[in-house]
Amino acid sequence: MTEPENLEDLNPEQGRKMYLEDRRGEVSAATLQSHGYRLDQFVDWCRGEEIENLNELSGRDVQTFKLARKQEGLAPATLKSQMDTLRVFLRFCASIDGVHDELPESVNSPSLSDEDARGTDTLDSEHAKKILTHRSKYDYASHKHVEIRVLWATGMRMGALRGIDLPDVHLEQQFIELNHRPDTDTPLKNNVRGEREVALDTTTTNVLRDYIDENRVDAGDKYGRDPLLTTKFGRASDNSVRAWMYQMTRPCEAGMGCPHGRDPDRCEAVDGQTRMSASKCPDSVAPHAVRRGAITHHLQQDTPPRVVSDRMNVGRDTLSKHYDARTPREKMEQRRNHLPDI
Q1: Within 10 Å of residue 304's Cβ, how many Cβ atoms?
Q2: Concatenated DSSP letters for 270-333?
């Protein structure tokens, strides 16, 4: 995870120009023009709010921008296009250390069937199940399979996953240690308060065992540590882990077809253009959306909030405000199951 002190200053207009130049040649001239127009609205809004450095942008700012555009009377489809473009733009900015890497997933893009729905990116359990089934069948015990399996099972943050070393994985006892190691570039978000032991289910343990035994690239990092997730260059980078998730969560990559009717051979989000091409799919999500989905799934399964809070290392207030994507109706029905007959 990119720490705030490691961000590089990025003016909104400069970011817009860099983004459009990056997309040039990947999309049609008409699409590029549309993206430019939508981002003009965002840059103008930043100017009005005196936001001169995107490092300072927060999730609340993004939501304020959305509400400002909504109050201008935009049709739901237009507002969705505006916010989808903003999310992809912020993903680009995160890839060049211009914004915090969790910020893009705070973009609340409305559903056309319910524009007021709670819309911060969340990988729902049905989508997650399809991805896990697809990976288990076609890409078993790969680094991508390990990423989605561990993140969904544990709800840990991407930075925590990336910082795991082989000695931290206890297959016989079925748990993983999470350690704060800032001196060797793998800090935990909550520092030593984020250190914990996380229990694993049998399926996740077996996937990890087979990955380590058969598919893990035998590479250490520059500090002499043995990372769990590796590439031929050593420990997998933040951008690698993020890119793998964007790739896996495209619906077409999990055997679900394209909900937007795109031709996979011509889609801008297909693999093979750039490592981050998959982030341009409106339905792909970053690792933080998997964390949010995993937390919601645990709550839907009636896991006590105290257990979820400890396991996922998130405060109870934060859990309720930012991670619980259950609808009011779902919450009511779950409470009903605990009520006595009177």
Answers
A1: 10
A2: STTS-TTGGGGSTT---HHHHHHHHHHHHHHTT--HHHHHHHHT--HHHIIIII----HHHHHH
pTM of the entire predicted model: 0.66
Is 148:132 a contact under the CB 8 Å cutoff?
yes
Kindly report, residue by residue over 302-337, the tens digit of the pLDDT: 888 888 888 888 877 777 766 776 777 877 776 777
Whether the predicted pLDDT of 288 surpasses 90? no
CB atoms within 10 A of CB 124: 15
pLDDT in tens, 131-177: 999 999 999 999 999 999 999 999 999 999 999 999 999 999 999 99
Q: Which domains does the chain have, with CATH numbers?
A: 4-106 (1.10.150.130), 125-280 (1.10.443.10)
State both tokens at 228: 């769990």
- Strand pairing report for 175-178 and 169-170: antiparallel
Which pLDDT score, from 0 to 100, does residue 10 have?
95
Instruction: Return contacts of 308-317, CB within 8 angstroms, 24+ apart.
Output: 308/155, 310/196, 311/154, 311/155, 311/196, 311/198, 311/199, 312/154, 312/155, 312/156, 313/156, 313/157, 313/188, 313/189, 313/190, 313/193, 313/194, 313/196
